[in-house]
Amino acid sequence: MTDAVSGRRSKPSIDDQIAAIRQLIDAETTRLEFKVSRGLMRADTAQRRLDVLGAAFGTLTFVRRYGASIRTCIEAERAFAKERAAEIEALQSGYEAEREAA
């Protein structure tokens, strides 16, 4: 997935990332099962590695489900902060004008 104009790789979509982590989990499950069956790795160590990949999968699905809502909330907070800063600045400049007039 390379952009022909700039030569840079395009950012994979969240669905592409979820599919990739799912494939990785499947491949790792097979590989780790083989290692455990041969005595090359303990079962609890293999499970911890799979748990880490599962957590990454869970995070990606959370982002896919709630990402738009989170971005909307952050944008609303930023807009509120800008409005509030403008109100405070207007009040401060009004007070300064009153002091200078007095």
**Radius of gyration, CA atoms, in whole angstroms:** 26 Å
Beta-strand percentage?
under 5%
Q: What is the overall number of helices?
A: 2
Shape: elongated
What would the average pLDDT be, to the nearest integer?
91
Kindly name the structural category: mainly alpha
**Poorly predicted spans:** none
The main sheet comes to: none
| Helix-strand sequence | HH
Distance between the termini: 67 Å
Helix content: over 70%
Give the tally of β-strands.
Answer: 0
What does this molecule look like?
By secondary structure, the protein is an all-alpha fold. Helices cover 81% and strands 0% of the residues. The protein is built from two helices and no strands. Helix 1 runs antiparallel to helix 2. The longest helix has 59 residues, at 43-101. It is elongated and about 90 Å long. The mean pLDDT is 91.
From the structure above, extract its key features.
single chain, about 100 residues, mainly alpha
SSE topology sketch:
Blueprint: H1 14-37, H2 43-101
Helix pairs in contact: 1-2
What would you say about this model in short?
The chain has 102 residues and is an all-alpha fold. The chain has helices at residues 14-37, 43-101. The termini are far apart.
